[in-house]
Amino acid sequence: MIKFKDVNKWFGSLHVLQNINVHVKPGEVVVICGPSGSGKSTLIRCINRLEKFQDGELHVDGMPLHNYSINLTKLRAEIGFVFQQFHLYPHMTALENVTLAPIHVRKIKKKEAKEIGMEKLVRVGLGDKASSYPDQLSGGQQQRVAIARGLAMSPKILLFDEPTSALDPEMIGEVLDVMIKLVDEGMTMCVVTHEMGFARQVAHRVIFMDEGEIIETEKPDQFFDNPQTERAALFISKILTH
Amino acid sequence: MIAYYFQRLIEIFPFFLKGLWMTVIVSCLGLIFGTIFGFIMGVLRSQKIRLFNWPIGIFVSVIRGTPFVVQIFIVFFIFPEWGIQLNAISAAVLALTILGTAFICEIVAGGIKAVPKGQWEASASSGLSIVKQLRLVIIPQALRTILPPLVGQYVLLIKDSSVVSVIGVVELTRVGWLTVVRIPEGLMVFSLVGILYFVISYPLIRLSNGLEKKLSVGQISL
User: Fold this and answer.
1) What is the DSSP string of B54-77?
2) What digits encode the pLDDT tens for the residues A37-74?
3) Are B134 and B111 contacting, i.e. CB atoms less than 8 angstroms apart?
4) Distance from CA of B118 to the nearest CA of A (A)
5) Which residue of chain A has the CA closest to B117?
6) Helix, strand, or coil here: B129?
């Protein structure tokens, strides 16, 4: 589904992704963690080409992203992306946020798109907030609308970039619950997060990154209980004692 | 004597209304075309595409950095030498359009740049094309920033239209000049001219202030 092969990326002279090799299979849930500036967000932003890379090969759903002439609309229609800061469209209601892409990218009729949008909002527990504007919703509710927006295109892959980092502690649970539900439904997901409970509970694999490199790729239990590298062990101890 | 002049001024008041009408026509056409071209150039300028950014930057700097009266002389007296023959009204509209375009371009580009980067990323991630990102997501939000100064710019354009009197367009200021020859009471004549400009500008000033207040607080659906 997603295959990185020797991917390298530089921001100026800074080598932010170094020889990345990752293979994510359909239905797999991969959690990417690591300290700030380790390149984890850059890594998942490459998957829907929010970031370009200079070297290596990346195939997503069979499309070669190292080939710059690919159809970006087609690629992005198959990938949902959930941002740390939600990035809901503030001039649109929750339902309009969710239905925008189905109407204008998938060319679904408005009435049908509204039905799909409502179904997605109900799925994230916000059926009663369809006509609310983002600034009338709490952070947790906004992030759930953002997840519904990502789901509305019926994507094959969902990417999460620190989806709970901007939330108050009491709102993290409601977002993680929605994400766990998606895992149960078999969605392919790449999640950048520091929620180690979530990683342990639902991830099939944990990727630990530092300074642009993948340091470890392990099953969650193995990663948390018996990290193979000192850097991973130090990171886990810091996260768990935080 | 004053009473006599006042009486004469009332008699020729319809002449002032004709001048006012010409001011409105020339200004409206200038601001309509200026808005259209200003938006197009502003959107292009906000995209940081070198091919557009460079020539637009020069155009804006030249127009903003030279007096309007010089620009209108060039349009009316120099353009014919290059084969572009325009009557006074067309030249006035063209010059106001060029002026409006330059200023509105900067307002629009500034408004678009003020929209958070995350809105571009979110709309791009949904698969929307760049045109749809602009039309559906970015410009509706940018309008919050754009509208108050845009309306303010309209007021400036209406006032700048007084300059077109120098090429013989019989608009409000020109009517003032023609009248003061017959009624040598400058204060009275140009007070009337000023009042008439104020009558058309004031509603726009109110609109600009109102938009600023309304758009700066709370959620409104644009």
Assistant:
1) HHHHHHHHHHHTS-HHHHHHIIII
2) 899 999 999 999 999 999 999 999 888 988 878 888 88
3) no
4) 6
5) A87
6) coil
**Contact criterion met (CB < 8 Å) for A135 and B219:** yes
Tally A–B CB contacts below 8 A. Answer: 64
pLDDT at A171 over 90: no
Chain B, nearest residue to A158 by Cα: B125
The answer to whether A91 contacts B127, with C-beta atoms less than 8 Å apart, is no
Put simply, the answer to whether A73 touches B124 (Cβ < 8 Å) is no
Count how many domains chain B has: 1
Query: What percentage of chain A reaches a pLDDT higher than 70?
Result: 99
Number of other residues whose CB lies within 10 A of the CB of residue B18: 14
Determine the distance in angstroms separating the CA of A82 from the nearest CA of chain B, rounded to an integer.
Answer: 8
B170 is a domain residue: yes
Of A87, A101, A135, nearest to B127 by CB-CB distance is: A101
- Tell the residue number behind the tokens 């002439």, with chain if given: A69
Percent of chain A scoring above 90 in pLDDT: 72
Question: Would strands A205-210 and A63-64 be described as parallel, antiparallel, or unpaired?
Answer: unpaired
A31 in Cβ contact with A199 (< 8 Å): yes
pTM metric for this prediction = 0.86
* Domain parsing of chain A, residue ranges: 87-155
B119/chain A closest Cα distance in angstroms = 6
Tokens of B57: 């930057």
Q: Check B219 against A90: CB less than 8 A apart.
A: yes
Q: What is the domain range of residue B150?
A: 21-214
- pLDDT above 50: residue B218: no
* Closest Cβ–Cβ partner in B121, B128, B140 for A91: B140
Of B118, B129, B219, Cβ closest to residue A73: B129
Angle (nearest 5°) at CA B221 between B215 and B222:
75
Strand ranges (E), B58-217: none
> Which tokens is A94 given?
């929750």
Identify which of B18, B29, B10, B19 has the alpha carbon closest to the alpha carbon of residue B162: B19
- Is B4 within a domain? no
Of A72, A83, A136, the CB nearest to B118: A83
Which stretches of A152-219 are DSSP H helices?
169-184, 196-202
Between strands A55-60 and A79-82, the pairing is unpaired
Whether residue A85 and residue B119 make contact (CB cut-off 8 A), yes or no, is: no
| Structural domain includes residue B2 | no
- ipTM reported for the complex, 2 dp: 0.91
B65 in a structural domain: yes
